[in-house]
Amino acid sequence: MESFGARLRRLRRAAGLTQETLAEAAGLSAQAVGALERGERRFPHRETLDRLADALDLAGDARTEFAAAGARPRTPAGTTAVPRELPGGVAAFTGREVELDRVLGLFADPRPGVVVAIAGMAGVGKTALALEAGHRLARRFPDGSLHLDLRGHAADPPDPLDLLDRLIRELGGEPPTPLTLGSASARSRSVLAGKRVLLLLDNARDAAHVAPLLPGAGGSAAIVTSRAALPDLPQAHQVLLDVLPEPDALRLLAAEIGADRVAAEPAAARAVVRLCGYLPLALHLAGARLATRPSWPVAHLAHRLGDESRRLDETGVRTSFALAFGALDDAAARAYPLLSLLDVPELSVPVAGRLLDAPDRVAENLLERLTDEHLLTTPAPGWYRLHDLLRLYAREHAGRLPAAERAAAITRVVELCASVAWQSMALVSAASHRHDWAAGRWAAGGPATTEEVFGWLDRHQAHLVTLVRQAAATPGVPAEAIAAVGLGLFEYHRARARWRDAIQVDEVALTLVDGVDPVAAATLRNDLGVAEAELAHGGEAADYRRSHAHLRRSLADWEEIGDPRQLAGILNNLCFVFGLGDDVDEAIEFGERGLALNRSLGLRHVETLNLVNLGVLYGRQGDRSRELAYATEAVAVGEGTDDLRGVAYGWMRIGTVHREEGRYADAVEELRRSAELWRAAGVRSYEAMTLAELGRAYAGLGSPVRARELFTEALAMLREYGGAEHVAAVRAELEAL
After folding, report:
1. pLDDT of 394-423, one tens digit each?
2. Of 35, 172, 315, 505, which one has the greatest count of Cβ atoms within 10 A?
3. CA-CA distances (angstroms) from residue 543 to 164, 553, 580, 723, 724?
């Protein structure tokens, strides 16, 4: 018997029409005509049949036969056929116990018309979960289970009228005349109201796409799947799917290839599930590939997946991602590749805004839209993340952008970080001579207080080293902008004791400016010398050779440049660093040279730390009165020049000396004042050390409870910001109490 599609093709050709000309004459799309001829849409609704018959100039018996060929056959009277259309579930449904229990539990709700919307990124297993739940729920719906693939992201999704026509006829109803979306939707709800039917509405584009198909009041219910979140369906319970936890991912891989192969190569199996991004579709396809190659070790697949250039093909997710990407509007499609450029796991709104060259509000709106489409996730407010495989897919598109456009996007992010870094420098060390180099180039709006600026850097610090390295390796990113990040972060790195980060950033920056920008190079060598010294001081085997080499080279640079202010600064740093070791005499020589130079230049605002450093050294030589005199002068100078850190350091030393000499009450007052100043300056490492000193003072006063509180607080801060030496000392004092 001739099918409707074959009949339509025969009649079209007999009329001398192409699919396109027939579609135009009938007021349909060429895709719709093609789908009918291919048999993908077997039963068009009556209005479509009439339009086609008119366009083909059919009349009489020919028109009647044409309409009959396209009509959905009726269920014979008296039969009890119940539609059970759900496809079979996946062979290896693994994990998702929590989500499955939630879906099943929602259908235990006695309220009518239950709708559950399952959303998640492409390949995360939405349909698998919906089918598993649908099969388990089938007995609760004696009048049938219908599966409608809405193909919401396809180029030619089915006409909602065709879907409603099919739904109404499948359940024994008669479509209304005239057939409109509103009338057909109302008729379907009427048909469903008197039955208990489960609808599985798969691959909805959005809420508007699926809403006409949903049941109303009555015993029927629906499970909807969509790549987009569907918050606009007020009657729907939302279920969000994420990637699988590693144990479930390993169980899914074992279900595909056999538990014995996973047990035989556990490390390789973990690598496979990690490189598949814990995404069920990728695990299923990669596992099926391995299952059909029993001679392949699991490690071989892990090795193949390790090649980023072939990972999308090895996991088989490219087609699914292409459909999701192809459904984006022009603005989102242009933006998404740019969001994949940075080698960091997640993006803040300000960083994304710079990548997109858009205001933060515009960027956030776009990020939220992409999150609703499950092309991004949001691990915390204001932060967004691409799945690893989606990042690879987006980077393929980013690779087609002009190199200059990619470099410009990364440059904008580097400049943002440089601006915030120099804000921290201005807030903590406004009198620093390194501001001469910056010359206001890196000032920017945004966070304003020390707490806000340091908080911003705290949230981004894990990415700064990666960003600097990537920028340095990207042709077209200005070296000056990269150097500005390292130079501007000096006070932040010192305040947070992030010396390893400082070394990594400054080494990259130095390679870019050495021999090009003498001032920047000399400053970076100074910073590297301080950072190396701090690391050596906190280590088990103190070795200051790298630090001394950097600082001596920086001293020679400044002598050659001829800037006496910077020369005084490097002399003070040499004083501090040599004092960390056993070179006390040489340290004092550097310090007194620097102090004399500062005074000859009238640079009172940079004397404070110079005085404190010298005072500490004289104290180590046993001259406590001289230490107190230098520290007291440092406080006076610092208060006169608004040097917050210098005053904090001065009070810290005065309090420490008084505590060591048994004047505990004086020490408590002085150390409390110092801790408050360190906190205000955002210098957590020295705040912690001062709190530990305050604890010792309270212990000397005979107040062990208060001492324990302070030691505990100091220990928590030192674990994050201080060195191992300080942590061990405070822990020992806590145990002694």
Report:
1. 999 999 999 999 999 999 999 999 999 999
2. 505
3. 78, 17, 11, 15, 15
Q: Which of 529, 530, 534, 427 is nearest to 488 (CA)?
A: 427
- What is the average per-residue pLDDT within 637-642? 86
- In sequence order, what are the residues at sequence separation of 6 or more whose Cβ sits closer than 8 angstroms to the Cβ of residue 401? 337, 338
Res. 322: pLDDT tops 70: yes
User: What does the buried/exposed string (b/e) look like for 539-550 if buried means 16 or more CB atoms within 10 Å of the residue's CB?
Assistant: eeeeebebbbeb
Residue 606 C-alpha from the chain's centroid: 41
552: helix, strand or coil = helix
Measured on CA atoms in the order 676, 677, 683, 688, is the torsion positive or negative?
A: negative
pLDDT in tens, 152-199: 877 677 888 888 888 888 888 888 877 788 888 899 999 888 889 999
- Specify the higher pLDDT residue, 512 or 140: 512
- Do 634 and 649 contact (CB within 8 A), yes or no? yes
Mean pLDDT of 297-310: 93
- Give the confidence band of 77 by pLDDT, cuts at 50, 70, 90: very low
Compute the distance between CA of residue 648 and CA of residue 689 in angstroms, rounded to an integer: 12
Locate the DSSP E strands across 403-562. none
pLDDT at 161: 83
Cα-to-chain-centroid distance, residue 704: 45
pTM for this prediction: 0.76
Q: How many CB atoms lie within 10 A of CB 563?
A: 17
b/e map 34-69, b = 16+ CB within 10 Å? bbbbeeebebbbbbbbbbbbebbebeeeebeebbeb
The residue whose two tokens read 């088990």 is: 540
pLDDT at residue 220 is higher than 70: yes
Provide the pairing of β-strand 383-385 with 347-348: antiparallel
| C-alpha–C-alpha distance, residues 287 and 276, integer Å | 10
Q: Which two tokens stand for residue 520?
A: 């920047």
Angle ∠(699,700,706) on CA atoms, nearest 5: 25
CA 64 vs CA 61, 69, 339: distances in Å = 5, 9, 57
Distance in angstroms (rounded) separating the CA atoms of residues 644 and 429: 9
- Determine the 3-state secondary structure of 435 from DSSP: helix
- DSSP, collapsed to helix, strand or coil, labels residue 581 as coil
In a 3-state reduction of DSSP, which class is residue 121? coil
Backbone angles phi, psi at 223, to 5 degrees: -115, 125
Rounded CA-CA distance 490/531 in Å is 9
Report the chain's mean pLDDT, rounded to a whole number.
Answer: 88
> How much of the chain exceeds pLDDT 70, in percent?
96
Cβ contacts of 422 within 8 Å, gap of 6 or more? 438, 442, 443, 484, 488
The dihedral built from the CA positions of residue 5, 11, 14 and 16, taken in this order, carries a sign that is negative
Q: Which residues pair with 251 in a beta bridge?
A: none
CB count in 10 Å sphere of residue 359: 10
φ, ψ of residue 531 to 5 degrees: the values are -65, -45
- 223 beta partners: 116, 200
- Indicate if the pLDDT at residue 444 is higher than 60: no
Tell me the angle at which helices 19-26 and 46-55 cross, rounded to the nearest 10 degrees. 110
Residue 74 pLDDT exceeds 70 = no
pLDDT confidence bin for 582, thresholds 50/70/90? confident
Q: How confident is the model at residue 539 (pLDDT cuts 50, 70, 90)?
A: low
Give DSSP secondary structure letters for 49-109.
HHHHHHHTT--HHHHHHHHHHHSPPPPPTT-----B-PPP--TT--S-HHHHHHHHHHTT-
On whether the CB atoms of residues 218 and 235 are closer than 8 A, the answer is no
Measured in degrees and rounded to the nearest 5, phi and psi for residue 425 equal: -65, -45
**Cis, peptide link before residue 178, omega less than 30° from 0:** yes
Closest CA to 354 of 455, 424, 446: 446
Name the token pair of 524. 């970076």
